[in-house]
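Example (one chain per record):
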Amino acid sequence: MARYPIFVKRDLDGFFGLAIDNLVQMLMIISLCGVFCGMSGANAYLVTGCIMPGVAVSLLIGNIFYALQAHWVARREGRSDVTALPYGINTPSVLVYVFFVMMPTYQRTGNAQLAWQMGLIACFGSGLIEFSGAFIAERIRRNTPRAALLSTLAGIAITFISMMFALQIWQRPLVAMAPLAIVLLIFFARSRFPLGLPGGLVALAVGTGLAWLLPMIGITTDVPMDAQAVREAWAGKDRYLPQWAGGAIWAALTQDPKQILVLLSVIIPMGLFNVIGSLQNIESAEAGGDVFATGPSLAVNGLGSLAAALFGSCFPTTIYIGHPGWKALGARAGYSTLNGLFMTAICLTGTVTLISKAVPLEAGIAIVLWIGVVITAQAFQTSPVRHAPAAAIGLFPAIAAWGATLVTGAFVEANRNPINYSLRSVPVAGWPASADLGSLPSEPPGLAPATTSRAVVAKTQPATTQPRLSPDTEPQRPVAATMQDLLESSHSLLGRGASVNGFLIHGLHILERGYIFTCMIIAAVSAFLIDRRFFAAAGWSLAAAVFTFLGLMHAYQLSGNVVDYWLIGTETMPGAYTYNAYPLVVGYLLMAGVFIAMGYLDRDKQIPPEDTVEAGRLVEEEGLPAEH
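Predicted structure:
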């Protein structure tokens, strides 16, 4: 039996990459909670003394379990190359819970502690859903084509992970490109450094050295490094032990039960997304050669989120994307253990800020970029060759979701820092041809606020002219300020056809809502059609219709630039633009009908089930042919 060590040298590479990923989430939590939820100044203790210790508990539980799980699998299979599942804070949940649970509570009440308590409830609810999903997830996984599960991860990896970090690397080349070169040498060319130094450590050291040394010789790097900030962060360290938060959760539950029901429209979709995302990552690990039991893996993931809430954190944990990347790095179980211990230490000592001030993220993000590349490649390399088109089509909703994020961010920033453009014609129907910007109404004359009905918002009389930029000498007139303005306007260039550089805003939001489900469903439908399993494709189409009807896919509400889910039976935000997605329900039903009809017409030419879904899992492990 091969010996499975507690720690190998390559665990350092995996640790640096995973630690950087988790550190980014922690810095995001500190920033967002402080700015939007009132957890700064006198209320900063809610982050440092409540949330961060809860994060420490959740990360320690999960990282240690998944490290032990890797040891169990290695012992059972007599292998020494098993890589533990990566684990950490769930990034989408951080953003959604801050902006749709905690911030609205703080804005409504001015009470930062109540905002924290509502965040605890959201995290606890997500943990319950994740834990419950452990009992049915394996059945879903075994009846879903691998291309459908992995193409979703590939879409997320190539956009939200790799693209985001690629932009940062090329934006700050003096610090980030040398570490990128080192990462490419190590993981593409498989080069080795003298003394067997881990490539991740070398990349981090080189990037950090450049960030500190180049400004000393007068070269601007656009990566601010401040020794005084490091000293202040060092002085601010302290000891913060986890505190039981069960009482705070119960108090919030009993204080305002109606408000909890409102939160379900956020908690339920996010909990389901976390289950599906973790399920896909377990499939990704199996595609890479490491088979972990689905039930226990998901159950501990849910327990980690429950522990987070019970000890003060508002943010659920998840099995991370990236197992094939960490495995290719040579990491085993030790990187998970190191990450759990390190994150616990910095959370309990208040040194998260200190590390961020001393080590620039640009020094290590090339590792995470490479992880995204490996995940994207895996979707095509470990699925049957014939399913490659299915994997490709599954990328589209994730790419659209990334585009929607960019557009939304641009509108939010534009409203924060408005610029008045001169227009040669009236850009929004109903605005006066000339007006004093200081006296303009909040809405164009004749444009009624959006209704909260599930009907399509009524359109106003269309304008006959189109906006064009003009010289500054022409009178200034207002442009539509938010995405809601654009979608509610009936201008010939706006309305449902409103676009930015040709990309339809309405279409981006439709694909962005529930994109994890949409990616998986459209890829599964495509894979089953490739195998001529028309009834299976129809079943997935019917599932899409149900999910869309419930509001888990495509339906949305838009208030200004704030996009939210719109679950059936829930109230809308006051004055929000709403889209119920019922046309898409009909569309999916029509798809199912077409597939069922073809299934009856062409029953004799379908590929047997045993040659499709399961073959897709065994194409590498068993050496089965990719084509039938």
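Caption: The mean pLDDT is 81.
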